[in-house]
Amino acid sequence: TKEINSKQLVEKTIEAFGKIDILVNNVGAGNAENSITGFTLSKEDWNRAYTCGIADLTEDDWDRSYKANLKPTLFMCKAVIPYMRAKKSGKIINIASIGGRSGGLQRLPYSSMKSAVIIVTQGVAKQVARDNINVNCICPGIVYTAIFQSIEEIQLRTGARSQGAQDPRQAFLDRVQKMVPMGREQTPEDIGRLAVFLASEDSKNITGQSINVDGGIVMN
Q: Is the distance from CB of 29 to CB of 147 less than 8 angstroms?
């Protein structure tokens, strides 16, 4: 992802619709990382990035995570804000993760970049608040996306999920039961409903916030 791509996307949107009211920065790693970053990921790459500590992470691991999880959000915000400022209104919704709420033993590059998305949300929200632009962040919990499917495949492949589950979906459901106080997985619809609220006028006095949709895993 390059800055010029974000600028061109915004310009084409303005040409087609005349304005931009809402921006949702829904970016992340997962299997799309190959196309987003231009890297070719082997099984070894995935195993290292999602299971190893900092001593074993490579420069490419960090660069890849930055390009997939943080850089697009930065440049899309930069590209749309001049147009939103001109009309004194706008809604920006960034998608981070509860993984960005605290450091853990695994997935350090991903968690670091998602934490940065939360901080960027706060900083940008302050910068554009007087322009009547709301900037908020959603932190999904455990959603069975391509990212989590890949994680479970890694865990099964490396023996970290050797007991019980024999396939990624069942391993994921086992994880849900262990981690989620409400005992159920989160869905894309759960995230979408909050995004709709944050994009509406019902949230006009909410800005700079990062809201967890995780069934109670992280409680503020």
A: yes
- Write down the pTM of the prediction: 0.89
- 172 close to 154: Cβ distance less than 8 angstroms: no
Per-residue exposure over 73-93, b if at least 16 CB sit within 10 Å of its own CB, e if not:
bbbbbebbbebbeeeeebbbb
pLDDT of 19-66, one tens digit each? Answer: 999 999 998 765 444 544 455 666 677 667 767 788 888 898 899 889
144 is catalytic: no
Q: Can you tell me the distance from the alpha carbon of 161 to that of 175, in angstroms, rounded to the nearest whole number?
A: 10
| Closest by CA position to 7, among listed 96, 76, 83 | 76
SS (H, E, C) the chain: CCHHHHHHHHHHHHHHHCCCCEEEECCCCHHHHHHHHCCCCCHHHHHHHHHCCHHHCCHHHHHHHHHHHCHHHHHHHHHHHHHHHHHCCEEEEEECCHHHCCCCCCCHHHHHHHHHHHHHHHHHHHHHHHHCEEEEEEEECCECCHHHHHHHHHHHHHCCCCCCCCCHHHHHHHHHHHHCCCCCCECHHHHHHHHHHHHCHHHCCCCCCEEEECCCCCCC
Is the model's pLDDT at 183 over the cut of 50?
Answer: yes
The count of C-alpha atoms lying within 13 angstroms of the C-alpha of 84, restricted to the half-sphere facing its C-beta, is: 26
Q: Which of 50, 66, 83, 110 is catalytic?
A: 110
- Residue 68: closest CA among 139, 148, 147, 125: 147
